[in-house]
Write a structure and sequence with these properties.
heterotetramer, B: 193 residues, alpha+beta, three-stranded antiparallel β-sheet, 7 helices, C: 398 residues, mainly alpha, 67% helix
Chain lengths: 169, 193, 398, 103
Amino acid sequence: MNTALLIFSTITLAGAAAAMTLRNLIHCALAGAVAFLGLAGLFLGLGAEFVAFGQVLVYVGAVAILIVIAVLLTRPARVAGESPRVEPWLPGVGIGVLVTGALVAMVKASLVARSPEAVSSPAAPVKAIGEQLMTTYVLPLEVLGLLLTAALIGAVLLALRDPGEARRP
Amino acid sequence: MLGSGIVKGFVETARNFVGSFHDPGRLVTIEYPDERQELPENSRNFPMLVYDGDDRMKGLRCVACKICEKECPPQCIYIEVERDARGKALKHPRIFDLDISVCMSCQICVEVCPFDAIKMDTAFELSTDNRFGGLLLNKHQLAKPNSYYRAIHPLEAAEVDERLAAEQARAAAKAKAAAAKAPAPAAANAVAT
Amino acid sequence: MFELFDQLFVNLKHAVVGALPEGWQVLASPLISAAAILGVFASLFALTVLVERKGLGRIQNRPGPNRVGPAGLLQPLADFIKALTKEDIVPVSADKVLHFLAPVVMLAPVLLAYAVLPFGRNMVAVDFDAGLLFFFAAGACVELAVFMAGWSSHNKFSLLGAMRAIAQMISYELPLILATLGVVMLVGSLSLVDIVASQAGHHWGWLARWWVFTPWGLAAFVIFLIAATAESNRAPFDLPEGEAELVAGHLVEYSGFKYAIFFIAEYLGLFAVSALAITLFLGGWHAPVAALDWLPSWFWFGAKLAGFIVFFIWVRGTLPRVRVDHLMGFAWKFLLPLVLWNLVVAAVWWYSRGWAFAGAGILRWVGCAAMILIPYSLLGRALYTRHGLGPRTYRLAA
Amino acid sequence: MSTLQSFLIVSALLFGIGLTGVLTRRNAILVLLGIEFMLNAANLNFIAFWRFGPNPEALTGVMFALFAIAVAAAEAAVGLALVIAIYRHARTANLDAVEELKG
């Protein structure tokens, strides 16, 4: 357990926990961005530079901004006296805790615990990633391009104002 | 070609930039406290009282007729006549106050003054740290010598001087004629005083 | 002799690190790099502000600041003292924590971006394999800081300004990144050190082999410059701060040193993106012609950076602010198609590298240039006539 | 405890936080954020297994994480557009207020 792992996992988990518990939606979204940054740090520590920087670019640069703008577009950040949780919230927390506990227990009990430390520290060179994307993974890449285009058009169409709808004052 | 206008703009600003170093005509900025602009002949700011001779108070042309006080649109002038011991009005202001925080530089007082006593000054550095007393000028502060008036408004002052000289000459001629007509009373008067 | 000057700073750092005890060396090396970057670029910021104010003054036919010190040279110091001593006002209804954090979050990623830029031969803090991506990832964090500043101020102008800034930055990030892709495609690496190394050597023995000397490279460079101006919120794309309509955008409620930090971050971002343009298109620290190779590499980098700063000041003094709908239309309808097409041209350039017949070089050049210029002209004309913005005639003016 | 295991535990905790958030928060946007956390936890698993796996030169985990990030971006865009569309219809983004889809 090295220091970098400890720091970045703390940032990630604290950010995620804050994002799921804070009352103010904007604070939640920003805490989420912090969690994404921490995850990028974890990826960097694991030697996956490209994924780490991609994570920051996509999640902090795009998804967090999208979430923040969606929050601003949908409702005032703070509604007095309104609970931020669904009404019977205990079962949800219970299920979450149960699932987490089961996962952790399984990880602890699994063969992984006895697996030796990795001796080599592999890197993912950008060139190799690019070459694989263009050879082995070319079909997924094309499908992904199609999916992103479809998502773009779909998002625009969904968020477009209905032509019949009158302009709000 | 598309975008040529932008290139033209760049050339223009570059010409300005380079030109500002070797062409002094381009730099129109006057660095005010260090160098001062020559004020134009017709510039005006607030009124002043012109006096002749050396004595600031004796030489005042103002006779306290109060025409300017009545005519002043924002009513920034306050005049009281000097009276002698018997209560007879002397042709002289005891108080002549002018509030330059109220004055709007309309020059109506100058237009109506029959004695060419009130004229427009060009001084503009009148700021003070006291907005009540500091901006209320009394007759001592308002009094300016005729030479100063000549310096700031040479053309206008020459005309005024000419007119005043003509008036004086006319008055002198009249007095002379009167003296010729009735020398005795005049002589008697002279003796009496 | 050349070696001594060229590697002056590298050797200096090594000497300092070597003099430290063993355990400290790992920590000292990055710290020294960071301190050097911070020191150099913070003083460059002070200098730039002065040069900008004086230069803009000259462009507008006025002398500019000249009261503090000889010829106004101490103006940055006066500005600094003023920023430090000004009262730091936090609005009552503001989100105090975010209001405090926003300038920090703004400055930190900008400084991080400097880590991957090669300032000279062997002068790079971290040579990431995905350095370019790191640069853009760091740049992406700035948007969040702008939002934090705008939202936490609890002021409608600052929120509007932040929204505009975010929309503008996201829109112009696309052409910015796509413009760099041509270079990445031909070099085959995202590492900025590799990209600089790929521009070594000379055409015909004297002209440097920079990417800007290719048709697609020139087009990508111009698009990159436009997008970079917009990314760093500089005139003529400084709408987020549009004083006339938004007072100062997301900076409305900031004063004193917090405002100064935003200001510094903005300028440091400008330097970083200029340095990236130098690295990608202008050969990084390589000399422009072979005859000038004897000057040290860091000198060339600095000279190019100075050129960029002067250019950006010139742009600011020349072009009026763009209207907000034109700004978005320009990015999405004009720059984006052109930059995508430019990638195709870069590919054509790449595949035609093996041509060996007579006049192949000229044909390749002219062909690629035509492939860029014709769509540029056609697209531009089409967009302009649709908006009724073609060449204008004035009825009353001569 | 091996390093791989600690990464897996971090990932499990992140997944748990995301799941709890999804189950308890009322606001649709935060539910979406919780889903993103769960996706990210999966990504962390992929990268960790790639790093400590037997043949890291295959880059499979990295590839999967990259695709997952791209898909997550698309998902976020469409999801948030849906939230905005629902908000326009129901004037709220709270999930328990939009119950018309219930069978």
